[in-house]
Write a structure and sequence with these properties.
Shape of chain A: globular
Strand content of chain B: 5-15%
Helix content of chain A: 10-25%
Radius of gyration of chain A: 17 Å
Structural class of chain A: alpha/beta
Structural class of chain B: mainly alpha
Oligomer: heterodimer
Largest interface: A-B, 80 and 76 residues
Order of helices and strands of chain B: HEHEHEHH
Helix content of chain B: 40-55%
Number of strands of chain B: 3
Number of domains of chain B: 2
Distance between the termini of chain B: 28 Å
Number of domains of chain A: 1
Number of helices of chain A: 3
Strand content of chain A: 15-25%
Number of helices of chain B: 5
Strand order of the largest sheet of chain B: 1-2-3
Number of strands of chain A: 7
C-alpha cells in the first residue's frame, strides 16, 4: 500500500462537500538550501509545530488571531497539550506531545551530546489557509526569534 | 509548515520538516524532509513509543548533517499498522476529517474569524 495522496483526497472531499474551487497548494520549482555549518554536537536546535500546543492551567493563545506564539522549551511536557482540531483523529491521538513536538527526545539527545541543546523556546504556527500570511508574517517572526535565540538549525513538525 | 522551512532556509538557517503528508510537502518543495507514512498528527513517531520517536528524531539529525542538496526526503522504516485500511478511510464521506464537536468548533472559529475581519478597518 502506498502513501495517502492528500492533495487528491482533499480536492475530492471538499468537492463532495460543495466547495467547488479546489485549494491551490503551494508549489515552487526551486528549493533553497543552507548546509549545516557547525557540527551537530555544537548545534542549538529550534523547534516549531503546528500542533497548537498550550500549557494546562494557563489561558491558551488566541486561536482566532492565528499568530505565531512561543512557549518555553523547559515547560514540563506533561503540562503541554495539543489543541489542533485538524488531524487524523480516527487513527491517532494528540495525547503524547512528543509525537509532534519532540521536546523529551531532543532533550535526551542533548544529554547524550548528539546536539548542544534546545532553544529556550519553541514556536507554534497555525496551518493557515493564507499562504501569504504564512510567508510574509509567520515565517519572518519565527526567523527573528530563532536568530535571537542563537539557533543553528530548526526542526519543523507538521501535525 | 513547508513555507516556513523554505523561508528559514533561504535566510541561512538549515531546517528539517517532519511530516506525514508526503505529496503536500514534496509538491511545495522543502530542503530536508523526514517522511513517516503515518496518520496526520504523529510526524515524530507513534504516540507513547519513545524508542521509535528517538529513532525518527535521530534520522532528522542525520539528514541535517548529511543532506547533499535541497529536496532530500528520508522515509522512516515504520508501518503504522499491519492493516493499512486507515489510509482508505482518510478524508472520506464515511469518515470525515472533522465531525461532531470538532467540526462545530472549527465552524465557530471560522465564523468568529470572519466577523473579526469584517470589524477591522480597511
Amino acid at each position: 500500500m502506498t502513501y495517502v495522496r492528500y492533495i487528491d483526497r482533499t480536492r475530492e472531499y471538499y468537492l463532495s462537500e460543495g466547495y467547488t474551487t479546489p485549494y491551490r497548494w503551494a508549489h515552487f520549482d526551486d528549493i533553497p538550501f543552507t548546509p549545516l555549518r557547525a557540527p551537530l554536537s555544537a548545534c542549538r536546535i529550534g523547534l516549531v509545530t503546528t500542533g497548537e500546543v498550550a500549557v494546562r492551567g494557563e489561558a491558551p493563545a488566541d486561536a482566532l488571531a492565528r499568530e505565531v506564539y512561543a512557549l518555553p522549551t523547559a515547560t514540563p511536557v506533561e503540562k503541554l497539550y495539543g489543541r489542533k482540531e485538524s488531524y487524523d483523529r480516527h487513527a491517532t491521538t494528540l495525547d503524547d506531545v512528543d509525537a509532534y513536538l519532540p521536546l523529551t527526545r531532543l532533550g535526551e539527545l542533548a544529554a547524550a551530546g548528539r546536539i548542544r541543546d534546545l532553544a529556550p523556546r519553541f514556536q507554534v504556527v497555525y496551518s493557515n489557509y493564507s499562504q501569504r500570511a504564512t510567508t510574509t508574517v509567520d515565517a519572518p517572526t519565527i526567523l527573528a526569534q530563532c536568530r535571537e535565540d542563537g539557533v543553528g538549525a530548526v526542526f519543523l513538525c507538521a501535525v | 509548515m513547508s513555507l516556513v522551512a523554505r523561508h528559514l532556509e533561504a535566510n541561512g538557517l538549515p531546517t528539517v520538516v517532519f511530516g506525514c503528508a508526503r505529496d503536500i510537502v514534496e509538491h511545495c518543495g522543502v530542503p530536508r524532509f523526514v517522511f513517516s507514512d503515518f496518520p496526520l498528527g504523529s510526524p515524530c513517531g507513534r504516540p507513547f513509543d519513545p524508542v521509535m520517536q528517538r529513532a525518527i528524531v535521530g534520522l532528522g539529525l542525520d539528514l541535517l548533517a548529511d543532506a547533499a542538496g535541497p529536496g532530500t526526503t528520508v522515509v522512516t522504516p515504520y508501518e503504522w499498522a499491519e492493516d493499512a485500511s486507515w489510509k482508505d478511510r482518510v478524508l472520506t464521506r464515511e469518515q470525515p476529517f472533522l465531525e461532531g464537536e470538532a467540526k462545530a468548533n472549527w465552524l465557530e472559529r471560522k465564523a468568529a474569524a470572519r466577523a473579526r475581519k469584517a470589524e477591522r478597518p480597511a
